[in-house]
Specification:
The structure is a single chain. The protein is of the alpha/beta class. It has helices at about 10-20, 55, 65-70, 75-80, 95-105, 120-135; strands at about 1-5, 25, 40-45, 80-85, 110-115. It has one domain: Rossmann fold, CATH 3.40.50. Bound molecules: flavin mononucleotide (FMN). The site of flavin mononucleotide has 23 residues, from helix 1 and strand 4.
């Protein structure tokens, strides 16, 4: 089971992913960092950064540009099996919207949304859900995930 995630300097997503305990790779934060290229099917964990634009009526860009760049690589995109999005419920209908956009564009299921760094219950639900559905999602289960 591979988790690929993006996390900004506040590192909420990083802390959530670390609690999951699955092998994980991070999409680089800075443009000059070497791009990440994955070699096995993965679940993407992505925070939302639209700023609640659909409430304010502005132009919404909920998916971080670093994640768009990563998914613009057709090889990386071909290995994406599911998306989990982070956010903040203060953003109302835009809560976790990055997951809706990635799911629609890449045609993968949006399997879970959570707030900030996630609760213990979020962690348990995602751990159990991914293990139970790994085969159906086309994810590899190895010893580290058992
Ligand atoms: C500028 C900014 C815009 C945000 N826009 C949204 C949003 O539209 N919807 C949402 O659910 N969360 C939004 N958030 C909340 C982040 O998704 C949340 O804080 C997340 O945990 C950040 O993860 P990170 O620390 O790993 O980058 C926004 C946060 C910031 C700082």
């Amino acid at each position: 089971m591979l988790i690929v995630y993006f996390s900004s300097a506040t590192e909420n997503t990083k802390r959530f992913v670390e609690k999951l305990g699955f092998p994980a790779e991070r999409i680089p934060l800075r443009k000059n960092d070497a791009p990440l290229r994955v070699e096995e099917p993965y679940v993407l964990v992505c925070p939302t950064y639209g700023g609640g634009a659909s409430i304010s009526g502005g132009n919404t860009r909920p998916v971080p540009s670093q994640v768009i760049r990563f998914l613009n690589d057709a090889h990386n995109r071909s290995l994406l099996r599911a998306v989990i999005a982070g956010g903040n419920s203060n953003f109302g209908t835009d809560f976790g919207k990055a997951g809706d956009v990635i799911s629609a564009k890449c045609q993968v299921p949006y399997v879970y949304r959570y707030e900030l760094l996630g609760t213990e219950e979020d962690v348990r639900i995602v751990q159990e859900g991914l293990k139970a559905n790994a085969e159906e999602l086309g994810l590899y289960m190895d010893k580290e995930c058992a």
